[in-house]
């Protein structure tokens, strides 16, 4: 899904949407230290606060391109904290 000019080491600006509300958070998508993919910037911290995320909570993540802007986007659905199930 990446375009030739998109560089994960430098970072790609993305919009992350919470599902099903659809609120957008501007972030950077990066590949850190050759080990892991991450979403960064203070907006990630705000996303965690807004949704009271905890380390054991499962999420479902979708990656897509916005049809109007062709920008890379994510949608994140939050699972239940208690049973780890996916949000619907």
UniProtKB/TrEMBL annotation:
<keyword id="KW-0804">Transcription</keyword>
<protein>
    <recommendedName>
        <fullName>TF-B3 domain-containing protein</fullName>
    </recommendedName>
</protein>
<keyword id="KW-0539">Nucleus</keyword>
<dbReference type="GO" id="GO:0003677">
    <property type="term" value="F:DNA binding"/>
</dbReference>
<dbReference type="InterPro" id="IPR015300">
    <property type="entry name" value="DNA-bd_pseudobarrel_sf"/>
</dbReference>
<dbReference type="InterPro" id="IPR005508">
    <property type="entry name" value="At2g31720-like"/>
</dbReference>
<keyword id="KW-0805">Transcription regulation</keyword>
<dbReference type="GO" id="GO:0005634">
    <property type="term" value="C:nucleus"/>
</dbReference>
<keyword id="KW-0238">DNA-binding</keyword>
């Amino acid at each position: 899904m990446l375009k030739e000019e998109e560089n994960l080491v430098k970072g790609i600006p993305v919009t992350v949407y919470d599902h099903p509300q659809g609120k957008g958070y501007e972030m950077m998508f990066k590949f850190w230290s050759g080990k892991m993919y991450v979403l960064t910037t203070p907006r990630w911290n705000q996303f965690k606060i807004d949704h009271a995320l905890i380390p054991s909570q499962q999420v479902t993540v979708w990656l897509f391109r916005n049809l109007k802007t062709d920008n890379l986007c994510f949608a994140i659905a939050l699972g239940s904290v208690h049973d780890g199930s996916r949000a619907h």
